[in-house]
Amino acid sequence: MSTVRRTLGLTVFALLLLELKTVFQQTDQAQAQTATIQSISGEGRVRIQREKRSDWTPARPGMTLNQGDQILPDRGVRTRVRCPDLSQSVLVKAGVPSGIRSICIQWASRIDRGDGQPDVAILGGSDATIPYLISPRHTLLLSRTPTIHWNAVTGASEYTVKVTSSAGVAWQTQTQANQIVYAGKPLQPGVAYAVTIQTNTGKSSQSDRARDQPQPAANLEFRILRPADAALIQVEAAKIARTTPTTEADVLDLARLYSGFILPTPVAPDYNLTETNVQSYTLTGEAIAVLQTFLQTGKASPILHRTLADLYWQTGLVHLAKMHYLQAIDRVRGLEDLEDWTFAHHSLGKMYAAIGDLKQTLNHYRQAKTGYVFLSDASLVEDLTRRIERLEKAIAHSP
After folding, report:
1. Average pLDDT over residues 326-346
2. Separation CA 341–CA 367 (nearest Å)
3. What confidence score (pLDDT) does residue 33 get?
4. Do 17 and 5 contact (CB within 8 A), yes or no?
5. What is the spatial distance between Cα 312 and Cα 323, in angstroms, rounded to a whole number?
6. In this structure, what DSSP letter does residue 226 have?
7. What's the mean per-residue pLDDT of the chain?
């Protein structure tokens, strides 16, 4: 960045900083809960019209629906929508458009991160030569015996895994694999635990950092939910699936439930969290595990990969987020996947902006703009047009 400061003109450099600043100033906003298309059966298709969009686009199971959206199943098509309270599954009338607000009566507000930007301090997961931590990373957990997973390093034949807290070392072991189930004394709810991994070749997870970041990734601790808090989320999860979810829509809803869970501010001190950072700790690790387990059955789709990429990005894992965004793009097969194709490109653009790769940012923003044109989303087309113009100026004057 120091080279850029010396070589770019003040005006161009200000434009570059504006793009990066915009990325990191995006904060989680309270939004209306979403409904989900739970299932579609019969001959024909289902279309939706998003609020503030003029066109109708094909829909698929697992797609989220907002209060202002409309849905139109063809005659003879049975479509079920799961409402935000999770316990209500409604059969949508076919042949006529229906407003989602009229289908699902009860709506509330919650924090919806989507592909929200992570704190710059946790960015990492891009150096394949170190055993960077994959999970549990900057997350809350339900299990007191979590699976610890890290990047496998070429040439390393053994790893030393250490779990620590402010009280000292809670557990330490060696393994030849790149994941292991915690087998120490039961972890205590609310305590901040950190994981470090060392290879027998001298590489450490403590060297994890993002591109051009001077400091290693920090704030990667995990915390176990207290029984009372865990019981609340488990009641909601049981409304979606009482056992392991078997449909894509259920898997996505469960992952969204976990990733949207936030501790109430008054209990933040009980978890050694502040009012500032309590909202960045969700059950992301549980959400990732649900999606990964389902993908291992071979049932991949653009929306599954994009959702998983969002979660990896929220925990600061640059390489894994990029990999799953690209897989979402590669798996697009029809117009029903256009939103996922567009959202994946948009998210990749924001990710590359966050790590300072402006050429890749420009490339993905251009692709996303094309997608929003076809989705008839004028406001996002306008926003990306401005961003693209700033990036083109900055890149034209860069070395």
Report:
1. 96
2. 9
3. 77
4. no
5. 10
6. P
7. 89
Proportion of the chain above pLDDT 90, given as a percent: 76
| Dihedral angle of Cα 164, 166, 167, 173, to the nearest 10 degrees | 10
| Three-class DSSP category at 177 | coil
Q: What is the DSSP string of 119-153?
A: PGGG-B---TTS--EEES-SEEES-SSPEEEEPPP
DSSP H or E stretch at residue 255: helix 248-259
SS (H, E, C) 36-54: EEEEEECCCCEEEECCCCC
CA distance 77 to 126: 45
DSSP assignment of 97-110, as one string?
Answer: -EEHHHH-----EE
Task: Check pLDDT > 90 for residue 255.
Answer: yes
Rounded-to-integer distance, Cα 232 and Cα 261, Å: 10
Homologous superfamily of domain range 121-226: Immunoglobulins (2.60.40.10)
Ramachandran category for residue 116: left, alpha or beta (phi over 0 → left; psi -120 to 50 → alpha): beta
| Packed helices 248-259 and 284-295: angle between N→C axes, nearest 10 degrees | 160
Give the contacts of 238 (CB within 8 A, at least 6 positions apart).
Answer: none
Span 75-81, average pLDDT: 96
Structure tokens at 173: 């072991």
Domain spanning 228-396: CATH superfamily? Tetratricopeptide repeat domain (1.25.40.10)
Per-residue pLDDT at 31 exceeds 60: no
Q: How far is CA 39 from each of CA 94, 132, 290, 320, rounded to the nearest angstrom?
A: 14, 38, 19, 29
Residue of 323, 364, 320, 318 lying closest to 345 (CA atoms):
364
373-396 residue pLDDT tens: 999 999 999 999 999 999 999 999
Count the Cβ atoms, other than its own, within 10 Å of residue 214: 6
Site of tokens 């034209």:
396
* Side chain identity at residue 140, one-letter code: L
* Tokens found for residue 45: 């298709």
Distances (CA, A) of 3 to 14, 37, 303, 393, 398: 15, 50, 39, 17, 10
| Interatomic CA distance for residues 190 and 206, integer angstroms | 23
Q: Is 131's pLDDT higher than 90?
A: yes
Write the pLDDT tens digit of every residue in 165-195: 999 999 999 999 999 999 999 999 999 999 9
Contact 217, 316 (CB under 8 A): yes
* Residues forming a β-bridge with 141: 224
